[in-house]
Amino acid sequence: MKTLLTDFSLKHPWWIFSLVLLATAGLALQFPKVHFDNDPENMLRADEPIRLYHHEVKERFSLYDFVIVGIVNEDHEDGIFNVETLGRIDDLTGQLLSLEPTDRGEIRVTTPSRGDRAAQTATLDLNPSDLFHRLLNVAFRHNPNRLFDEEGHSAIVGRELIAPGVVDNLKQAELGALKLEYLMERPPRTRAEALTIRDDAMGNPLYRGTLVSEDGMAICLYIPISEKTFSYNVANLVETLTADWPASDQVHITGLPVAEDTFGVEMLVQMATSAPMAGLAIFLLLLLFFRRLSLIIAPMVVAVISIVCTMGLLIGLGFDVHIMSSMIAIFLMPIAVADSVHILSEFFDTYHRFQDKAKTVRSVVGHLFMPMLYTSLTTMAGFGSLAFTPIPPVRVFGAHVAFGVGLAWLLTMTLIPAYIMVFVPAKSLANLQPTGLAHAPGPMARFLERFGRISYRHWKGILTATALLLAVAAFGISRINVNDNPVKWFTEDHAIRTADRVLNHHFGGTYTAYLTLTAPESSQVNAETVAADVTERIRDRLSLIFPDAVGQFLGDIQATLRTHGHDASALLDALGPKAAAIDAQLAGGWDLLADEINYLDPEGLDRSGLKRVVAGLTGVDPAITATLFSEIERVDPAEGADLQDTALEICDTFTERRFSQVLAECRTAWFAPAFKRPEVLRYVEDLQRHLAEHPLVGKTTSAVDALKKASFELNYRQPGAEAPHPAPANETYFAVPNTVEAVGQVFTQLEGMKKKDSLFHLVTRDYRMANLWVQLKSGDNQDMEAVVTAVADYMAAHPAPDGLVSDWAGLTYLNVVWQEKMVNGMMTSLASSFVVVLLMMIVLFRSPLFGLLSMIPLTVTISLIYGLIGLVGKDYDMPVAVLSALTLGLSIDFAIHFLQRGREMTRQRGSWKAAVAEMFREPATAISRNAVTISIGFTPLLFAPLVPYRTVGFFLATIMAVSWVATLFILAALSRGLERWLYPAQNVPAEPEPSNRKEKCHV
Amino acid sequence: MFKRLAGFMVLFHALTAWAGEPDVTEIIEKANRAAYYAGKDGRADVAMKIDDGKGNIRERAFTILRLNTGEVDQRFYVYFKAPADVRKMAYLVWKNPGREDDRWLWLPALNLVKRIAPGDKRTSFVGSDFVYEDVSGRDLAADHHELVETTDTQYVVENTPKKPDEVEFSSYKVWIDKDTFLPRKAEYRDKSGKLYRRVEALAVTDVDGYPTVTESRVQDLVTGGSTLNAFSNISYDLGLVDKIFTERFLRRPPREIR
């Protein structure tokens, strides 16, 4: 039964070869369909609510993913604001905006004309110059010149570009006029012009700390791209366009999309180099251990076929190759090699006993079938459990590694026997001598034997030490930091990390999150409340002047409330005509009078002339004219325009007192959308002020900032300029205006700026939802989370007016969400696979005690590894999380082999004491070779420029080392301590098997 | 040789004029008069709907007064009636073709008259897809004009800016009705030659003997946004006086507005 597959393979090796070849070729043919996905957003399911919300926010506020280009000049005395650098920035802006495809699909950019220089058009080719990268691009179908969509539109969303030459600015001009123009309408020609641009930018809260650094040394361009996948190529384009800039104008490119996209591209390079390097290292090590090429080739072939088939399956099933799945090859390599090495190693060791290839293979497979089946099944369980995490790429990864492990097992059972039958000539086996004990023990063997003795003699010490270590590990685990940041996937000296450092030093922060504040849908306004408000306002404003009319109108309010009490809006509608009638009666005369005066020609106008005109008016009560002239006498203006103005001002004091005016104010106060209400806007202002004090927040930007700036510029009076009334200081206008109307009128100015609709990145067109642009200095999840908590705490302590609801979007925030899911997902998957593997072990050993014992090395390893991660302060990130599955899969293998053999030997020798010396010879050597192979095999990963690969390389080695020590030391020590229960009544040696190795070895 | 050629050109032009086909200068002159100078003065109520292309619609209502003060000079008064928060807000524009316009703004809630410095006339008019130049007309001298097509009913004129750096388009084409000389459609191309903007007169009626656009629309072909203007209560030759186009009348709107 056990050897059914193997028997078939021994009889029909060519059938096996053909089948394997066919399957491999079939799956390898899927490779050209490969599609890469390096978007961490896809760590979340496409229909995940936060992702949907993120896209809704982007859509509502017309937001795009940005490639951030920071230009820093630390050498010039004026920093970045010098004529030359600003000129270059203007050129770059023009070039980016002019990007267009030629008829032949090439890239064309136009440098705008400046001074005497005419506009220049150039065609670019962004393909790398060296052959290796060109080949890689061909292999991975990456086209560096892809900067246009199918319809030929530029990847850069030109109208949303943020650069000094294309963002609005409001400023004072001659004669107290207000100027609407771009911040850098044209590149400066003189130092003074350059410094004016600096002062304008610094004076605008929308740009200080965002577009220009507060130290004046840096400017950031925010290049919006239509799709994230363009970011690497856009970054590349900027690098090409700025290649000839002097060293003093440093160009740094960053932003999450660039980091993510760059990672993807470099990941491909890693796939093409790391995995083969690891393969080569393993190959050389095996050669060193076994010194027999024919023995090593087969395991390598098994590994390669497993990897090719697994990747082919993944691609064929239509999955994208993601950051995780790019590591499949690296994970499969050691696991696939291990099984076949076991078989071949035993085959060569025992051949001399049978002198027949088929018979030897049958014996070896019969002997190793169960442990190998179980080691494979447990590894599959470990990785398979990842298929139940909530993170799609991790699921795909787990399921496919599990498949690959199963395939490697199947190949070991079929392809290896077939290989032996066909490719290993019987002649070469004829002179085989038994290895191992016949030879003088090598250094490893001597070392291991000493190990064995220690484990037996000092078992209590070992267990105590283990307990102590576990205690330390527990402390370490308690300090684990769940944190990730795609920018930190690059090594310290990578250009992206440098850019990140430099730009976050100069600016408010390059990590963006969007805090949205939304007013609830239609908040029902109570008619009685509105009626009470109208009543109060009418009383306050009008009861002293028009006591009778006020009494009448208040009666009207009550009457209308009875008929229209259900609807506040209808109430105000119904009161409208009544107010208008009262107004006509009270102020109608004044209106007529003012109108008439307004049309008079001020030239030569004197009081008698004015009296003549007024006297001729019909419909104006003489009492009104009398009031007017007594007031004029009191103010005593000069003649002409002064007289006319005074007369109009007097009229105004009466015409302003209108019932309909009060009604209109009530309407806007109760029905204006949230973000036109001063109290709501001031709340946002306070929230921003609070956030500004948070050490992780570099800057926040909102519609309130734009509003305050516009209010200031509109109200600004030039010092010394004649003012009609004593004017308050200009600074006081840098504030939210006091009424809904004033807010609405200032916002209307912002709606009609030169760059249309830029206000609507910060507030929706209906003013019911606002978007706070929060810039963080760090993209670490933890830091983002801290800011989320800070906002939640603030809003809990200071309830928002209008029942505003807050929410988050933005890539930095998205990362937090999937991290959280990943940690919880990994915990559950680890726990469930632990239980599954434990059950398998109990079945395998037919003993709960052995089952539990076999779980000890991996438990210790996982605890120590995560304890170590906690202690050294390494963040628990995605690769670290996935390592738990690998540990489970690999560590258990050692335990299975050790316990299985230990049991056999104890049975043969009669006691653990007798078996232990034997155990630390051949079985321990096999385990040690395996551990060393895997650890050393992955050292090439340590030189990868991408941190996740380094992490995997380092921890694989550590896991192997710890599992190895844990298996050999702790299991041996426990076997000694638990001997009574593990091996009860083992006093009689079991009947020697025919294949008893010790006897034969001494032949 | 040159002289002879020049003489020939003059003769050629004279002949085409004689044949009944006006030359392009005449067409655009007449179109400009028809579109922006009807009567000595005029007024209209405008209902504006700004659609952002995603289903969000903003509405504004305002009244426009216009007075022709010279051969080409004009004055405009724009008075807002809705939405409620911008009620009574007003703009005053003195259009001075050939030199910078003068503009003032009245914000009643801030009790503020502010002069707006001359600037780009191609900025959005109160946040709509119309630009100031659409409202008050583009200086004819700013473009080169070429009659590219004549159909049974329309002249098609291609216009290219003399100072391409100052505008966002590379050219625009205007379709002008032969009978009324009213421009019915204008299409703008961006710097790479792609069509991105369309202005249309959707409805034309006769008011007091003047062919008048009663509905017009601008489409932003890139964002899908559009703005629709519906004109009502249109009248001409009301006898407006130029003093109402002054700062004083910003604070207290003229009777003709109400």
Automatic annotation (TrEMBL), chain A:
Q: Which GO terms describe its cellular component?
A: plasma membrane
Give any Pfam family that matches.
MMPL
UniProt membrane topology term: Multi-pass membrane protein
Superkingdom of this protein's organism: Bacteria
Q: Which InterPro entries match?
A: MMPL_dom (IPR004869), Mycobact_MmpL (IPR050545), SSD (IPR000731)
- Principal localization reads membrane
| Keywords assigned by UniProt, alphabetized | Cell membrane, Membrane, Transmembrane, Transmembrane helix
Residues annotated as transmembrane: 267-289, 296-317, 323-344, 364-388, 400-424, 459-477, 825-845, 852-872, 878-899, 927-947, 953-974
Matches recorded under PROSITE patterns: SSD (PS50156)
Query: What is this protein's record name?
Result: MMPL family transporter
Organism (species): Sulfidibacter corallicola
Automatic annotation (TrEMBL), chain B:
Q: Which residues cross the membrane?
A: none
One family from Pfam that matches here is LolA_like
Q: Where is the signal peptide?
A: 1-19
What InterPro entries does this protein's entry cite?
LolA/LolB/LppX, TP_0789-like
Q: Which UniProt keywords apply?
A: Lipoprotein, Signal
Q: List residues of the Uncharacterized protein TP-0789 domain.
A: 73-252
Q: Does the keyword Repressor apply?
A: no
Protein known as = Outer membrane lipoprotein-sorting protein
Q: Which organism is it from?
A: Sulfidibacter corallicola
